[in-house]
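A further point concerns the way the authors explain their paired sequence and structure data. For illustration, here is how one protein appears when written out as sequence plus structure tokens:
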Amino acid sequence: MAARSAALKIDWTKVSSSLGLRGQTAASLQAFKKRNDDARRKVQVLSETPQTVDFSHYRKVLKNQAIVDEIENHFKNFKPASYDVGRQLKAIDAFEAQAVQNAEETKGKIEAELVNLQKTLENIETARPFEDLTVVRITGAIWAKKEWIADCVYRTRLRPPSPRSTKKTASLVSKGKWMPPGYKERFGDLSAV
């Protein structure tokens, strides 16, 4: 009885929305809900039908008493057939295994996404303040690590920016220009938008 009352209290819309179910898991849950509702309706209809048969009424109405006696005999000797529910239990177990597997896959994807988000959050928290991101400071920080640059394959091509180019870059950036004049004409527009 407690299981029946618990089953009646399930709010299916809250289950799917609060768990954030999507795809095959949500479809399987909806199919299960439909089967549950159909079974509940059938039980309700069958419980409302009368369970006893009044054979004395039929004896009064019908002239052929032998038929009523024969039907009453069959009714008293009737034994409901017992079904092997193993197949249904196997189907339920397979459904449960599939649901658990889908849940584990979803859990793995969510954990991987959380790790990526945590790394991104750490990068954001440890980033330099926006006020410190000037052209002079960035170029100075790059050239302060000359030992690392010396190990670079292209170390012979790299040289510190000239004061003129640093001033020109700072001037362009302060005006909101992010590309030098003539760049698009020479190399083309590579923007995806």
The chain has a mean pLDDT of 78.
